[in-house]
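Ticket #4471: structure output looks truncated?

Reporter: J.K.
Steps to reproduce: submitted the chain below (153 residues) through the standard prediction queue, then opened the result file.
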Amino acid sequence: MGQCFQNTMKRKEAVQVKLKQLLEGISYEVQPGAAELEISEIQYGSRKVEKDSLFVCITGFQTDGHKYIPMAVEKGAAALLCEHKVENVPENVTVIVTENNRIALAVASSNFYGHPSREMHAIGVTGTNGKTSTTYLMKSILDRVGSKVGIVG
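Returned output as attached by the reporter:
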């Protein structure tokens, strides 16, 4: 069935990717720092940040990820992806400012994992009634013809 992705986004193998590569396709401005540094993972939860992470500050309905920058830096974030200029960031931490971090997170994640969606087909099922029945019927048909199938939702 479908795979559940949690807050942690790590590559299967221990690989570092240049921040500049992660930012391809994103309109951004580098505040202090450089886009040439190596990133080992992408995080949007400050408690999960490890050394050389890119911490993405998501502005939510209940809290603002920018408030957790000090914790992310303390845990080893090498770079921050922010939606506005931030103050009091150590010189060794790169700050990247984008207009929309949700879109930037999606693009950076796709870049980090080598664009996995290019290797798969997606089918969406919407409506009021019958979605579960329809998805399991489609799964059975596609399984039968030898396709790899996953269901999410």
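Triage note (M.O.): checked the attachment and the full token line is present. The beta strands are 8-9, 17-18, 28-30, 38-39, 41-43, 53-56, 79-82, 94-98.
Status: closed, working as intended.
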